């Protein structure tokens, strides 16, 4: 349907927050540093850059999520097409999400807003 968020791994969440705020001049959308995440708006768009602390998210790679109508339905259809997911769909604050990698090692995900 559309882009959701762009996830980027960082080694030091505090230094990364300084960089994205003071060097790039982005506005903080939310700060869950205690959970290893901080998000920055890019202009007026809803999708954000979400920094994820690699000290907490050990297997983190740059990831793009896309919004779909129903993750569980899309998950089933995508699995039938041979897509291998990194996990079963999981609950997040706004709905459900799941991630996979394309044949080239790029990490992608789908999410819905069904909560």
TrEMBL record:
Residue ranges of every copy of the VOC domain listed in the record: 2-113
One Pfam family here: Glyoxalase
UniProt-listed InterPro entries: Glyas_Bleomycin-R_OHBP_Dase (IPR029068), Glyas_Fos-R_dOase_dom (IPR004360), VOC_core (IPR037523)
Protein name as catalogued: VOC domain-containing protein
Organism of derivation: bioreactor metagenome
Taxonomic classification: unclassified sequences, metagenomes, ecological metagenomes
């Amino acid at each position: 349907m559309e882009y959701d968020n762009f996830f980027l791994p960082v080694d030091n969440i505090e230094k990364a927050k300084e960089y994205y705020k003071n060097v790039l001049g982005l506005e903080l959308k939310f700060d869950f540093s205690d959970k290893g995440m901080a998000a920055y708006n890019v202009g007026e768009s809803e999708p954000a850059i979400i920094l994820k602390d690699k000290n907490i998210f050990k297997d983190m790679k740059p990831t793009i999520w896309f919004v779909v109508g129903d993750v569980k339905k899309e998950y089933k259809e995508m699995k039938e097409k041979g897509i291998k997911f990194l996990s079963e769909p999981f609950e997040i604050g706004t709905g459900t999400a799941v991630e996979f990698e394309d044949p080239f090692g790029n990490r992608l995900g789908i999410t819905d807003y069904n909560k």
